[in-house]
Amino acid sequence: MNNQDVNDSLFIRAAFSKPTERPPVWMMRQAGRFMPQYWEIKNKYSFLEMCKTPEIAADVTMLPVDLLDIDAAILFSDILVTGEAMGGDLSFTQGVGPKFANPVRNQSDIDSLLTDVGDRLDYVANAIKVIQQRLNGRIPLIGFAGAPFTVMSYLVEGGSSRDFKLTKLMLHNHPEMAHSLLSKIAKVTVDYLNMQIEAGVNAVQIFDSWAQALSWDDYKEFSHRYINEIISGLNRKDIPVISFCKGSSVFAPLMAEAKPDVISIDWNADLLDMKGRLSQNIAVQGNLDPHILYADKKVIRERIHRLFERMRGQNGFICNLGHGIMPDIPFDNVKYAVEVIKEYRY
Ligand code: CP3
Questions:
Q1: Distance 78 CA to ligand 1 centre (A)
Q2: Among 34, 166, 276, 307, which one is least packed by beta carbons within 10 Å?
């Protein structure tokens, strides 16, 4: 692999707030169900089999690289594999989403979770190595992990939740218990991301998808504190760190205190305004509403151009969605959006 090419890529330059001739683009959930080619693989294997078989994980990771000509690849995996490695009995059922059959509800459940789980996540390091051989320096590979609060919410609720009732009850009634769980997840996450860096990823993103459920004070105490701990514990070398949460249009100034290189912003905020509130050396990623990808092509084009004109003259801007692509978004619209983005010049 040619590291120099990757370091000179649009994505890495933008992540380190250096000039680029246009914004680089990748999209959260770019390898997934909106793609007919994803279904060809998915119909043959379970989701966890796909994640755990390096050759298959690599095949799926490469789909948007080959079919969309995207500017960065993201490892095909899931944020919940850390929870599984710690002892969670994880399954994914079509139409139901993720489930932990043994939810974590009390201190003894927390005590039985493992934290020395590098070996159990070996398949991720192996997938990264296969993907890097396939990419061969063409574009950077992003690794990722879930943030402790978001992973905790799945462990405690036993799956997806609308209101995070049990999780928030634990934070409020038993904060010491919540902290012991979050500390364990944070430890596993630092080791896991360092393992990904060692295996060869070129950037890492921390997903705190459900942080928006928290009040400002609770975000500080139960989320920010652990993300800070994780980022401080990374062997960053020249690897940019991206911090994502839904709710970033409120929390971004606090997220910046953990010193990521990039903050991924949801679509509620004006991106330029948000960038102006952060220090010069922090890049922003975002912040298209994923729903624009359902709209007519002229709307897609207009919204992309509107965002890019707004960000004209700014170093440190990576084009992405404010959250992941929905499974029923037309593939052709995503392809069109990437073409519009790649044609643009500052
Ligand atoms: O972005 C990518 O293309 C890389 C792969 C990736 C997946 N999940 C694949 C996946 C990434 C980065 C994730 C992260 C993830 N997983 C998050 C954080 C990002 C976000 O969207 O906020 C969260 C909250 C999860 C947990 C999770 N995994 C859920 C809620 C679901 C079910 C979603 C649903 O709509 O049913 C998953 C499953 C999952 N992860 C799929 C994919 C492609 C779908 C699996 C399938 O094919 O059925």
A1: 6
A2: 276
Residues 241 and 238: their CA atoms lie apart, in Å, by 10
Report the C-alpha gap between 10 and 98 in whole angstroms. 34
Report the pLDDT value the prediction gives residue 2, as an integer from 0 to 100: 63
Structure tokens at 328: 């029923």
Write out the DSSP string of 19-76. Answer: --SS--B--TT-SSTTSHHHHHHHTTS-HHHHHHSHHHHHHHHHHHHHHH--S-EE-S
28 lines ligand 1 (CB under 6 A): yes
Cβ of 248 closer than 6 Å to ligand 1, yes or no, is no
**Bridge partner residues of 48 (DSSP):** none
How many Å lie between the centroid of ligand 1 and the Cα of residue 299? 27
The dotted CATH code for 3-343 is 3.20.20.210
Q: What is the pTM of this model?
A: 0.97
**Whether the Cβ atoms of residue 208 and residue 245 lie closer than 8 Å to each other:** yes
User: What are the tokens at 33?
Assistant: 């169900």
Q: Is-contact 295 336, C-beta < 8 A?
A: no
Listed residue (5, 26, 75) closest to 262, CA to CA: 26
Q: Are 79 and 149 in contact (CB under 8 A)?
A: no
Domain ranges of the chain: 3-343
The Cα 187–Cα 260 span in angstroms is 18
